[in-house]
């Protein structure tokens, strides 16, 4: 993989719409992608301790995109941060492109998991956090981005119920709430996590300062969830 000097220039948040516009074709899952854009940018720009050169470093933070059925924003942010060449973007979804409609960890530089099937990311993140703790790696943070509809899946409820009592302090979940869940959660999404012993915050998913404050809030001895509310999917 070679990134040219022109492609390696500094990109910022305002460049992301143009980068996303390079990705064309059918089945783009546009609303699923744009709902995650601000969360992804704040994480990669200000929170995650991972770089293109250090993406295999054992001490890196891990980011798992469970909401992998709308990866355009993810690819745009990875390109903006130098993980993959910008000139890969126009081929998105084509037969010979590494950038599929679901990200593939063996093809996409920086991707920790192959994802897109609902309900897998959070259980994998729990296992990742447990594995790091067992290896004595207490500094790396594990982040997983899910959609609110994914919380309809029983595998996520099992992961939520386990992580709190296990005291997985380095585990962080971001739930994109675009009102697409089919089953209501009594008291709201955050309450479901809090009942299982998690720290929780609910914020405007388009407000970068609010997201950063929620992402960096202390939560000693407990996993942390940030519910990022965005416009309804079908609005």
UniProtKB/TrEMBL annotation:
Cite a single Pfam family from the UniProt record: Transketolase_N
Q: Which SUPFAM superfamilies match?
A: Thiamin diphosphate-binding fold (THDP-binding)
**Lineage, uppermost ranks:** Bacteria, Bacillati, Actinomycetota, Actinomycetes, Kitasatosporales
The molecular function GO annotations come to:
magnesium ion binding
Instruction: State the name under which the record lists this protein.
Output: Transketolase
State the similarity comment. Belongs to the transketolase family.
Transketolase N-terminal domain residues are 29-217
Q: Which UniProt keywords apply?
A: Thiamine pyrophosphate
Q: Organism, per UniProt? A: Streptomyces lucensis JCM 4490
Q: Which cofactor does it need?
A: thiamine diphosphate
What InterPro entries does the annotation carry? THDP-binding (IPR029061), Transketolase_N (IPR005474)
